[in-house]
Amino acid sequence: MKRTWTLTLVVLVLMTLAGNGAAYSNPAATALNGTKTIGHFIWVWHSETIAANQTKQIEADCPKGRALISGGYSAAESGAELAISKTVPDSEFDGWLVAATNRSAPVTLAVYAGCE
Question: Mean pLDDT over residues 72-99, rounded?
Answer without folding.
Answer: 91
